[in-house]
Amino acid sequence: MALNTVSSVSQLLRLSDTFTSVGNRHLLVDFAPFRRKSSKRYNRRLTPFISPVTLRRSSSVKAVLQLDNHLNPAPPPSSSTSDLKPQVANLEDILSERGACGVGFIANLENKASYEIVKDALNALSCMEHRGGCGADNDSGDGSGVMTAIPWDLFDNWANKQGIASFDKLHTGVGMVFLPKDVELTNKAKNVIVNIFKQEGLEVLGWRPVPVNTSVVGYYAKEAMPNIQQVFVKIAKEENIEDIERELYICRKLIEKEVSSESWGNELYFCSLSNRTIVYKGMLRSEVLGLFYSDLQNDIYKSSFAIYHRRYSTNTSPRWPLAQPMRLLGHNGEINTIQGNLNWMQSREPSLKSPVWRGRENEIRPFGNPKGSDSANLDSAAELLIRSGRSPEESMMILVPEAYKNHPTLTIKYPEAIDFYDYYKGQMEAWDGPALLLFSDGKTVGACLDRNGLRPARYWRTSDNMVYVASEVGVVPVDESKVILKGRLGPGMMITVDLLGGQYYLLS
After folding, report:
1. pTM
2. Counting beta carbons within 10 angstroms of the beta carbon of residue 435, is it exposed (0 to 12), middle (13 to 18) or buried (19 or more)?
3. Domains (range + CATH), the chain
4. Where are its TM segments located (predicted)?
């Protein structure tokens, strides 16, 4: 049917899924969102291909209204006083635009690793499918992922089959790497990685292709899907665990610099490179993450904690590297001050000095990436602070401070906290906006809420020494009789679990 024969939105909704516009230009329209409103991920299924009509990706409702206005222009505005009446908000518009990521963590207070924790994280993700978005193919998710401790038993089992000795857990780093799809470019990327590690005195012990099931990947996600491999690196020159993490951080920054001028440079991405943590993620729906990564179905994959994340992309188009968790953080929210934060980070780069870097500060610049998402840049800022020697809790307080001015409790009981915030506000501007942040460096796992408390966060602790945090209750099956503490995080609150010390802290 030609576009100029369409007279109203109501008629348009009764059309078949495909119709043709004048000038041999086409629109493919699927109006499933209007028939199936039970899930937000259907809101993305109105997709413009080539059209003179501007359609908004974020809202099918608005897109149809814009199309109707294009076909049936409104009469010229009159000078009537009725135009001055207050405008009423469109409720359907408001509801269709609402969305937020699904996030959470599970941790064992005794630091006991088990597959049950990994399995519970995957089950929780499956319950959060409604929190994420999908592409027009209804299968390419905005992203989902998990961060866990490194599953050494799983990797030792693989190494023994390859004729490689079991890994020295104290002196081995594991990188989860997205490589270019092209075989030749993959080899080039690997050569760069190996050469940088060798230059830094590290030895590559082997490459492991990550087993995946591509049948569960959506069309658009499969088109952009990278070659996913893991690299194992021996670190011999460092003894302190923090120095090892810092050395791996420097190596990754050097690799990123080396490939930045290459045409394929943005196809190389480290999901994680650490001695303690690893991230499995992708442009996937949360309910298929465990089906995609075969490792996550293996019961010898054990961890004492897991951070899980289902992404609802609001500020950037979905891409494999932008799925979360990031290297340290899982973020539900938006950083509204991102441009200012990036500008100030860049302006302060030349003044960065710390003895922990041993004069190598220039090698880890730049700290931000304007092409990344707000979450990715916040993660980079947190990574810089943590690798410089600050604890994750302190780093979160610097980056996302609570509303401490005229705070009655802080003023009377904790004036040193006010002094802390006053001191650091001159060194780091607040990364402000609605945010629930989950974080882990492998020793600590925690969550904090922004100063306005604009994202949901529930926590509960059980008698069998498990601590849970999630953006909603009911995602993990827990025996209610075992719950000894539960509540919700309020504005500026933080909960942390010290995996090594066996303690948890609720900070407000």
Report:
1. 0.80
2. buried
3. 3-76 (no CATH), 102-507 (3.60.20.10)
4. none
